[in-house]
Structures are given as structure tokens and as C-alpha cells.
Automatic annotation (TrEMBL):
It comes from the Bacteria. This is Nucleoid-associated protein. InterPro entries: Nucleoid_associated_NdpA (IPR007358). Keywords: Cytoplasm. The keyword Cytoplasm applies. It is found in: Cytoplasm, Nucleoid. It comes from Halomonas halmophila.
Length: 330
């Protein structure tokens, strides 16, 4: 994960004049410790609830233009990040009880280039000194990342209209802060990631039902989808429908993709995965006395009802293939 540029600016709220930026004089020196921190920072960031989107065409934010100037060699990294810190300081004044250190890292991961930024706080800790005594040891609290953002520079510069190359943190209960942060970043209307993920799972359920798959095959494909989506979430990358289609069915790699494209789901080619929605998705299965039943959990209470008192399962919407078989058996 080669680091191209990195810097830390402090945003101080201890005075009576409000938040002020204490800028770094220059960039951080390369080190193994910084590399390790970046790896931990990426992991912590990907675990956070986030909004996804792109830069808006109609925005007063200076970041997209300043970032473009930096990439074109017209602006140095220190100046770019000082301007960003100055734009973030008023947010801290308005929405947060204390400041912190703004860490910004420009780096490569694989073939892609990213800009990662995070407002970090320190917490009191303990260590063991040279004389085997207990000494204070301040530590960065990566879990307390109130503000964080990640820009896939490579996708942005390529002009990929479907790729949500910009993501930023959305702390629970901090909607106003997230909206203000999005304005500073110059972000467009965020993608509704839970709804997009739910729609994708609905498309998958329809695909499984239309193909009239055996229970074991259905379960395998469900596991493949969840595994791929969870892996993309842990990497901080969106799901791509064509790649997902190949994962779901290696024998017919275009089948699921064609199912989505031939139906009116309105899904984008690339979808940021929502971890909470994925976690809740599972299939109920059972077999007894020659009867095999399998359905997705989100259908329970809608198309399928369980009458616990009488131990009955009521199917409200009989699959078309099964309906035809039942009519032929009359």
C-alpha cells in the first residue's frame, strides 16, 4: 500500500475563538509505522456506517477543484490539505464537542489511487517503560472516527459515471454533521445503500425462484452472493453486477446479470453493499415427509406467514412454476 503523500493538521478547540487549524509545516516522513497505521485506518474506516456518491456538478465546495489542481501539479499537498482542514474546522465548532488531528493520506492500493482522510482523537492509555514501570501512553482511538472520507481518485479521473467513488462517514444520530461534511466534500445526493442492497437481494430471490433451483443449489448461490458482498464491504468497494453474476453462477456467468437487466429493478451497475442489510438476509429451509421448503427471510410476514399456534406455514404467493405443476396435477 505505497504512500505517496501524508500529513497531519491539528484542529484545536481549546481557545475562546472557536476551532482553529494548527497546520503542519510539511508532510510526514515515510515509515513502517505509518504504513501499519494506514492498514489499521482502512479497516476501521470500512467498518463505519457510510454514505456513498460522487462529486456534484453544482457545488460551492472547493475540494474537487483543488484536488484536480493538486493532481495536475498546480497545487502542493500541504496547501491542499490546509485548505481542507480550514473548511472542516467550522463543522467541528458547530457539531462536535472537541477537535482532533486531521490525518490525510494519498496512497495506492493495488492499481487504484485513493485519498483517505480521518479526524482522529487520542485516548489515555498505559505502557511499560524502560525501567519496567507503568507509564502514560496516549493512543489513537481509531474506532472514534467521527469524520472520515475516502476518494477513489482513479475512478474519479476516469470519469466512471456509475462508480460511487466518494464515501464518507455517517455516525448514528449525526445526520446534520454528515450533511455538512458532504457539503464540504462537494458530494452529490448520496446513494441509498440499504435500499439498493435490498433491491439487489429481491432481484436475487426472484432469480432463484424463476430458475426453480434445488434447495442445495439455492443455498450455495445465496452463500456465494453474501460472501462476495461481505468481501466488497470489508474492502470498502462497491459490488459490480457483472462480477457478482459470475460469482453467483460460474457455469452461466451472465445469467443473473441478464435477469437484472431484463427486469425493471432500476439497479445501478455498481452498488455499495450495506452490511446491516446483508447480515439480516438469510434463507429458511426445511425438509420433512417428502416436503421441501426454502424461502428468503424478507418474505416472512409478507408472501409467507407462520401460524405458530397451529404450526402452519401459509404461502400467499405461489411461485408460477409450482402453480403450473399444481394445475396439471388436478
Amino acid at each position: 500500500m505505497p504512500i505517496l503523500h501524508s500529513i497531519i493538521h491539528r484542529i484545536d478547540t481549546s481557545g475562546e475563538q472557536g476551532a482553529r487549524v494548527v497546520p503542519a509545516e510539511g508532510e510526514l516522513a515515510a515509515s513502517a509505522t505509518l504504513d501499519d497505521l494506514l492498514a489499521e485506518l482502512n479497516t476501521a474506516y470500512h467498518a463505519k456506517a457510510k454514505d456513498w456518491g460522487q462529486f456534484s456538478d453544482d457545488t460551492s465546495s472547493r475540494l474537487p477543484g483543488a484536488l484536480a489542481n493538486f493532481l495536475d501539479g498546480e497545487l502542493d499537498f500541504t496547501t491542499l490539505t490546509r485548505e481542507l482542514a480550514s473548511a472542516i474546522a467550522p463543522l467541528i465548532d458547530a457539531h462536535l464537542p472537541l477537535g482532533g488531528h486531521l490525518l490525510i493520506i494519498d496512497h495506492h492500493k493495488g492499481e487504484s489511487r485513493y485519498l483517505l482522510m480521518a479526524l482522529l482523537h487520542q485516548r489515555d492509555g498505559f505502557g511499560i517503560g524502560d525501567h519496567l514501570d507503568i507509564v502514560p501512553s496516549p493512543q489513537l482511538n481509531l474506532a472514534q472516527m467521527t469524520l472520515g472520507a475516502r476518494i477513489d481518485i482513479s475512478q474519479w479521473r476516469q470519469g466512471n459515471a456509475s462508480h460511487p467513488y466518494l464515501s464518507y462517514t455517517r455516525d448514528r444520530g449525526g445526520r446534520k454533521l454528515a450533511d455538512a461534511f458532504a457539503e464540504v466534500l462537494g458530494a452529490s445526493q448520496p446513494v441509498d445503500t440499504p435500499q439498493e442492497t435490498r433491491t439487489l437481494l429481491k432481484a436475487f430471490s426472484d432469480y432463484v425462484e424463476s430458475a426453480d433451483m434445488p434447495e442445495e443449489t439455492s443455498r450455495e448461490k445465496t452463500d456465494a452472493l453474501i460472501g462476495y458482498a461481505s468481501e466488497q464491504a470489508s474492502r470498502g468497494e462497491p459490488m459490480t453486477l457483472d462480477e457478482l453474476s459470475e460469482v453467483v453462477d460460474e457455469q452461466q456467468p451472465k445469467a443473473f446479470y441478464d435477469h437484472i437487466r431484463n427486469s425493471d429493478y432500476g439497479l445501478s451497475p455498481e452498488i455499495p453493499p450495506d452490511k446491516r442489510t446483508l447480515k439480516a438476509f438469510k434463507r429458511f429451509t426445511g425438509r420433512a415427509a417428502g416436503v421441501s421448503i426454502s424461502f428468503d427471510s424478507h418474505l416472512l410476514g409478507a408472501a409467507v406467514e407462520y401460524d405458530e399456534e397451529n404450526d402452519r406455514l401459509i404461502i400467499k404467493q405461489v411461485p408460477q412454476g409450482l402453480r403450473k405443476q399444481l394445475k396439471k396435477g388436478e
